[in-house]
Amino acid sequence: MSEIIPDLKYTKDHEYVKVEGKLARIGLTDHAQSELTEIVFVELPSVGKEIAEGEVMANVESVKTVSEVFAPVSGVVKEANDKLVDSPELLNTDPYGEGWIAVIEVSDAASLASLMSADDYRRLLGE
Amino acid sequence: MKTTPLHEEHVISGARMMPFAGWDMPIQYTSVIEEHMAVREHCGAFDVSHMGDLLIRGAGARNLMERLMTNDVASAPVGRCVYSHILDEQGRIIDDTIVMTIAEDEFLVVPNAATTERVSGWIRKHIDGRELLDISDFVATIAVQGPSAAAVLERITSADLSRVRFFWGAFVMLDGVDWSRKPSGDLLKGRAYLGGEVRGVPALLSRTGYTGEDGFEIACENEAASTLWRALLDRGAEHGLRRAGLGARDTLRLEKGFLLSGTDFDGTQTPFQTGPTWVTKFNHDFIGREALEMQKGVGEYTVLVGMIMNGRGVPRHGYDVVSGSNVVGRVTSGTMSPVLRKGIALGYVPREYAQPGTNLQIRVRNDLVDAEVVSTPFIRREKK
Prior knowledge:
By secondary structure, chain A is of the alpha+beta class.
């Protein structure tokens, strides 16, 4: 059973969103990292980039596969987690902490409302 | 979906199962990288029962091998294993395989899982009175690979393994395993066993593999597979042995530059393109030879090279290889090398780009990442 943090928002693509005022800190859920297996490479978005909900925001690669990470909200990329360049394994070891991927300044607060609660996400996983 | 006799063992141990060439196979047990490093440093046990097992025998079987195989199988003494390609009349690779000479006029051909039917059909087409037995469904194969493989094998047999040298094989009684059933199938019944006719798991042992490490491939009858698997895991543990899945098998072979059938050649390339050069011996007459000699005369073709990434990025099957503003080739296999911690790839490029040291780029999504042609293997075994 994977870890789900109560006060975060989630997407059906197994991302989490930590809302910090106008900022959304985005990462992959514990379930996602476990399914992806060991992450060996992360391609981050450029800071300052305008990104629309559903667009590819980052790519994470395990030994065997490439997976796209979609932007869960629209806005401007304010931060990208450079630590992942040299330590992509942080996505596996600390997905909700040091393994975050990017921070987006949300352009439309309404888009946050469509995200899932922890309970909804737990139901999606069937746990 | 087909399953191997070890399927339940994998499921019980929590393996991540995935379809591979029509088989439900373990891709990893805990971690591709950990399993990979275990094989490089200690030892790993792989279920490779999905590979085919074709027995060819009868008067003239040796001549048939001479016709079908690019390598010089026909002059191999009993016990010798030879890596060879099988070509069609146009010189294109149907499959690569290891052929073991089991007796004077008897051979075991081990094709890849996905090509076993095609290879068996091809052999049947040229059989001309010899006997072909597809025993794939009755034989399980476990590969024990890594520097401590011999030490692990010594725990399950009292036979003198120093007599089974690199790329040789023998029938061996694994008398350290509690098993008393006599073999009943064509491969193992009535053979002369190293270590004599005592109790134990009867097996055909060959000192071969697909990891570039020392190691053995152990073929036994399906019924004995689970018992043997458990004995290996149990005795092997103190030698650092762990289960290893097809994920690690793929990264291990790629670090050594070994070809993957269906991926690094797909039925359209010749051995001149894939290499290695020693796999084709022009001292005998084989199917595809004329076409190869013509290709040699013309000389316009792409060749498979090793490439290492100097920039950030992981090369993958199908990515473009770029020189200047031109796409000059394509990646066929790529991964992040667990040993080098860099992207490594095999891919086809025109011969003028094939020299080691040639600077190229590989397109990773929207970026061109610097890569360099290198001679394979990407990593070499440490000299002891």
